[in-house]
Description:
By secondary structure, this protein is mostly helical. The protein has helices spanning 3-27, 34-41, 45-52, 55-78, 84-100, 103-112, 116-123, 125-142, 149-169, 179-190.
Amino acid sequence: MSRLNNEIKNIKRQRILEHAAEMFEAQGYEEMKVSVLAKEVGVSVGSIYAYFDSKEGLYSAWVCSEIESAYTVFETLFQQELPFETILEQSIRAKFQLFSKKRKTLKTGVLNNPFFFEAQQVEHKEALEKLYTLFILPIETIKTVNIESMQLVYILNSIGNAYIIRWIEGDIDNLEDKVGEVFSVFMSLLQGRVQT
């Protein structure tokens, strides 16, 4: 296949994904119809399934694209010459801000699957570990506990995800109000002030 054909396919795939993301957020996963997406993008339903296999595959591709976008945000954040504590707090805030814009898109997945985030962790392991790697060196410079740094990043992610689940369930009104709590808990863990 020619390079031009590959570029055209990539552009079409990206266009489908962008429209799907808008529809997921406007309508939620359950209500989003692939047939309507196909009509809006100007392709056949079969073309969408050729790129993504299924509606679930389309959703999974959306999750992966969100992780890649988050990596860019976090990479820029970690390039700043700031104390790690400041970067950590800003990274928690950035994560919560990103999720705050995707509530409806995430709601069905989270409410229908109590292991939603764990499933994403398995399915998108490479993309997430690339993101998590940004945290390793800074954590190693300040931690006082004898816990592997990558494990600490997983713990940080899990703490944040617990708050996101509570927010999606309606137990928390404003996710960003909880940045300080997540930061405080994680810093306590890094400094050995809480039991794991």
